[in-house]
Design brief:
CATH superfamily of the largest domain in chain A: NADH-ubiquinone oxidoreductase 51kDa subunit
Largest sheet of chain B: 3 strands, antiparallel
Pfam families (chain B): Fer4_15 (PF13459)
Pfam families (chain A): Complex1_51K, NADH_4Fe-4S, SLBB
Bound molecules: iron/sulfur cluster
Number of domains of chain B: 1
Protein name (chain B): Ferredoxin
Structural class of chain B: alpha+beta
CATH class of chain B: Alpha Beta
CATH architecture of the largest domain in chain A: 3-Layer(aba) Sandwich
Strand content of chain B: 15-25%
Organism (chain B): Cryobacterium tagatosivorans
Number of strands of chain A: 9
Shape of chain A: globular
InterPro entries (chain A): Nuo51_FMN-bd, Nuo51_FMN-bd_sf, Nuop51_4Fe4S-bd, Nuop51_4Fe4S-bd_sf, Soluble_ligand-bd
Oligomer: heterodimer
Strand content of chain A: 5-15%
Chain lengths: 411, 79
């Protein structure tokens, strides 16, 4: 697939290096225009072609090709004659992630450009921006600065773990409880009020704003063939400078931890993908943050969330508190999730706290398998993945607990 | 739970977990397909929310869909 760059004529030089989304000097509209230039008026086909050539994947966690979701909503709207709904999603229910909040504060106009660009492509009937209360003042200020953004409806998101799940977002916009819905058709076919509904993460939209300006070839000039461009990551845990970074796609995990000031020799593992993610042990720090290299660990890049763990800290104690938190975040709708997650967390808790019953790990595994795939959203699957990864990667710690000889810090 | 759900089945029985109350009526109608987990919810080992239905169980599956008091079940063709 050859990039279709001829459609794009930027008026301002494209950002060089890996600071792209974060290259703006200030969040105001004047600065935005000076730094990035005006949003080009790409016709629908032009933007879709450019996005397809760019290889951009969704940055909200599911890593689905960004263009394909737009195309699906577009095709549906045309065949049914129903105007689409476009939603920018900044609901980061994941406590370890703050990239979307950071982006909305640093570069709200890139997100707005992307939202408007996609809305034009779809000839959308309504446009919404859904994000946490703490991000709204910055966004409201940005919306007021430009005449073309009046149609954007700004909505506060719920602060629950599953609030960012696409069907939960649509529920919230419809005025219902912000919890996931049972779905047998895709949202791009029938979402808000039965209309084709496109929910894109705000970082995805901001990347779209840059690709619309500078083209697919520019996008791919950083990163790897399978993870082109840059991405925002949130690094937390046992590192000297936790926070949000913009990195090239496919950056080595060890390097990435180094950027955040980690002493990688002092770490036992890093959790990749957030609380629904999986652990990459220190021996795997040479792997790149990319699909193929993370797969052996059962991990995925997801929304770019990394949490480092110091080797002196007890991983089971930490994992047990996370599992307990996740059990408490079930949306209370699906029996296997409502019953299974607390049961699984409780068994892990017994193991973490020193119960030496040798059957505990097998019971955790049994419950993890029992809940997987049996909910209306992926919360049980993600929680089970995290718990199973903990037992696998920290098998020595499990053995130490069962043997009554874990000498690590349990605070 | 005697028969393994057919891998090449053309029908899928979808369970809406947000509606199901776990009283297990469907498991009485479709004992060959659905067991009950320890909380009473229907379970087909190896499958999650969409359970393949062998052709010969299609009538029973339709009955389960019609009789589920919570309207939690639906049948659709596999695409
Ligand atoms: S699986 Fe759990 S979190 Fe997801 S909708 Fe059902 S009850 Fe809520
Ligand atoms: S009959 Fe319906 S409500 Fe009852 S257990 Fe089966 S699916 Fe659930």
């Amino acid at each position: 697939m050859s990039p279709v760059t001829q459609a794009v004529r930027p008026t301002v030089a494209a950002p060089a290096g890996t600071a792209r989304l974060t290259s703006g000097r200030a969040p105001g509209f004047g600065s935005h225009l000076a730094d990035f230039g005006p949003i080009p008026s790409l016709v629908a086909e032009g933007l879709l072609e450019e996005l397809r050539a760019s290889g951009l994947e969704g940055r909200g966690g599911a890593a689905f090709p960004a263009w394909r979701k737009i195309e699906a909503a577009r095709a549906r709207g045309r065949s049914r004659g129903r105007r689409a709904v476009v939603v920018g999603n900044a609901a980061e229910g994941e406590p370890l992630s703050s990239k979307d909040l950071t982006l909305l504060r640093m570069a709200p106009h890139l997100v707005i450009d992307g939202l408007l660009g996609v809305a034009t492509t779809l000839d959308a009937g309504s446009i919404h921006l859904y994000g946490p209360e703490s991000a709204l003042p910055a966004v409201a200020r940005a919306l007021a600065e430009r005449p073309d953004a009046r149609a954007i409806d700004l909505r506060p998101s719920a602060e629950t773990f599953v609030s960012g799940e696409a069907s939960a977002v649509v529920s919230a916009l419809a005025g219902r409880r912000p919890v996931p819905q049972d779905r047998t058709v895709r949202l791009t076919e029938a979402g808000l009020n039965g209309r084709p509904t496109l929910v894109h993460n705000v970082e995805t939209l901001a990347q779209i704003a840059l690709i619309a300006r500078f083209g697919a070839a520019w996008f791919r000039s950083v990163g790897t063939a399978t993870d082109p461009g840059t991405r925002l990551v949130t690094v937390s845990g046992d590192v000297a400078s936790p926070g949000v970074l913009e990195i090239a796609g496919g950056t080595r995990i060890g390097d990435l931890l180094g950027f955040a000031g980690a002493d990688t020799a002092a770490l036992s593992a890093v959790l990749v993908g957030g609380y629904h993610g999986a652990w990459v042990p220190a021996a795997g720090f040479s792997a790149n943050l990319a699909r193929e290299q993370l797969a052996p660990f059962g991990a995925a890049v997801g929304a770019g969330i990394l949490m480092a763990l110091d080797a002196r800290r007890c991983p089971l104690t930490l994992a047990s508190s996370i599992a307990g938190y996740l059990a408490g975040e079930t949306a209370g709708q699906c029996g296997p999730c409502v019953n299974g997650l607390p049961a699984m967390a409780e068994v892990l808790h017994r193991l973490a706290r020193g119960d030496r019953n040798a059957g505990l790990p097998a019971e955790v595994r049994r419950l993890a398998e029992l809940v997987t795939g049996r909910g209306s959203c992926h919360h049980p699957d993600g929680t089970a993945r995290f718990v199973l990864s903990t037992l696998t990667v920290f098998a020595e710690d499990v053995a130490a607990h069962l043997g009554g000889r874990c000498a690590k810090d349990h605070s | 739970m005697t028969a393994r759900p057919a891998a090449n089945a053309r029908l899928l029985l979808h369970i809406d977990w947000t509606a199901c109350d776990g009283r297990g009526l469907c498991t009485e109608i479709l004992p060959e397909l659905l067991g009950r987990d320890e909380w009473g919810y229907p379970i087909a080992p190896g499958h999650g929310s969409d359970v393949p239905v062998p052709d010969r169980l299609a009538p029973a599956a339709e009955e389960a869909v019609a009789l589920c008091p919570r309207l939690a079940l639906s049948l659709r063709r596999r695409d």
